[in-house]
Amino acid sequence: MTVVTAEPAVSTDPTASTDSAASTETRAAREVYRDVLVELLGRDERHVCLDSDTGLFSATAWGDAAPRYLNLGIAEQNLMGVAAGLARSGRVPFVNTMATFAATRALEAVKLDIAWNNLPVRIVATHGGLSAGHLGSTHHALEDLGVMRMLPNMTVLVPADGPATETLVRSCAELPGPVYLRLGRGATPDLAPGAEPVRIGLAQRLRRGTDVTLIATGPHPVLTAVGTAEELARTGIDVAVLNMHTVKPLDREAIVEAATRTRGIVTVEEHWAAGGLGSAVAEVVADLGVACPVRRVAVADRFAAGTGGHRHLLARNGISGAAVTEHVRRLLA
Amino acid sequence: MSDDHARTARELVVRMCANPEGGHLGGSMSMVEILVTLYRDVLRIDPKRPQAPDRDILLLSKGHGAIGLYAVLAERGFFPEELLAGYGTPDSVFTAHPNPAVPGVEMPTGSLGHGLPLGVGFALAARLDGRDRRCFVVLGDGELQEGSVWEAAMAAGAQGLDRLVAIVDRNGLQISGDTEETMGLEPLGDRWRSFGWTVLDVDGHDPDQLRSALSRVPHTPGRPTVLLARTVKGRGLPYIEGQARSHYVRLTERGHRRARAAVLRGERPRTETT
């Protein structure tokens, strides 16, 4: 990451990101999501917003849709079951909680009540990855992508910026089955304008290259991949970058192309190395039977405890341009 | 409902327990009158149109009682009784926990503590839709040890879901033995009341009491209702009634004959009353 941040002097909002000074021109994905959802509920009678005391929503913001905003308190297992009952009755619930509570605390209800019945529930999970920062390991979600992509019927989406969040929220509203949408916490810069819009199931090509392919998911990993690719280009190394905003269903064709046309793949994600995007990519490569090395930039097999904000924890846990560069150089050595 | 319906359902349950896989006998027998009363006298359902949009919803949260549900659904005409011979055989739709591929089964359940949250969702949807639909959730008493039950109880109370009805099959036993010795539930009525529910106490083997209580739903405007239905685990088989070992049973051919004879005699052992 090359973005320099300044910590705000005072923050009275405990959920406000201390990293948000990075980009005054952008908004947190969860705020983008909130505004799109208010609009969607106003337009479509089927949509229901289920809240779990996230503090993200104001009950007064819904206008005529207010009866379809239900804050069911701090009870995530019940939340998922209620969503399934609503969806089975023809509603399209948007369920709101933090990523780690959706993926672990409420997992059985997600698996049995929602995924098994293939119901159109949209689980919108904030505080993905290490974005909860100094809130600590109780609030870090480093297992959610692995857990959710294992579940049959589940679509797993990770927008990397505000515009992609808006596009994916709007497009997932039309999917017939369940969706897990992982958002971060603070604001991150938008990706370069002019990039093609994201489409569910298709990797977004951010950079063409012939030496190695970087495949990243989530705001900081994608920004890290793009920034590192630009630095490597200045040293004559030509690296492709894919934004894999859809972790499931995975864009196998894009991976096949990466595996056959470049000399290796480096994945970048805010997730434990086991089970996430890197594992998913490695599975595809293994299924192909091609000789393509896959290196994973991810959090090692440990709890990322310790103080510090989101960016600090990313750096401490090796989600960095230096790590990507090291892998690329080894692949080309 | 006449005793014939309950007797037929019990016959079907013991027949399924004579399958090589066996079955959850005790908890299926204890709720026979509850389910028969619901399906015969209370639920607005049509066996020929199990997915009719205006139907009432029945969720068997104590999903291990699947064979009891299958038996009552067959007896009520959702599918031919002969199909139950497939229970426990490879590739049968009749799994040991409710399979939604079986006509009349609303949702897959059986991991305990899921039914009431689902019921809250159905009830909220009905309210949003302006439907008069009622949702009934049958819970085991041991199941009440699951925390998600009380999350849902709190939600239903807070939302004032007066067309949601929980029915607790209060047979007092779980696998380990007495619920009160395993992890006590009493004072059970007070617990539900404290979550904003109206509590009705009934003999769960008395169709008249069940019918009378269930015909008064919604009982209290703005409050969900729970029936604490006092039952006997393994009801209908005097030699195993009220015993924890009735929980899961594989009947031999001889055991099946004996059980069937007992069910057909229709003995009515006393139900403990308080």
UniProtKB/TrEMBL annotation, chain A:
Pfam families: Transket_pyr, Transketolase_C
Domain Transketolase-like pyrimidine-binding: 27-190
Record's protein name: Transketolase
Native source organism of the sequence: Streptomyces ortus
Highest rank taxon of the organism: Bacteria
Region listing for Disordered, in residue ranges: 1-25
PANTHER family: PYRUVATE DEHYDROGENASE E1 COMPONENT, TRANSKETOLASE-LIKE PYRIMIDINE-BINDING DOMAIN-CONTAINING PROTEIN
Biased segments, Low complexity type: 9-25
Coiled-coil stretches: none
Gene3D superfamilies reported in the protein's UniProt record: 3.40.50.920, 3.40.50.970
From TrEMBL, chain B:
Highest taxon, organism lineage: Bacteria
Transketolase N-terminal domain segment(s): 5-260
Pfam families xref list: Transketolase_N (PF00456)
Coiled coil: none
Record-linked InterPro entries: THDP-binding, Transketolase_N
Name assigned to this protein: Transketolase
Lineage of the organism: Bacteria, Bacillati, Actinomycetota, Actinomycetes, Kitasatosporales
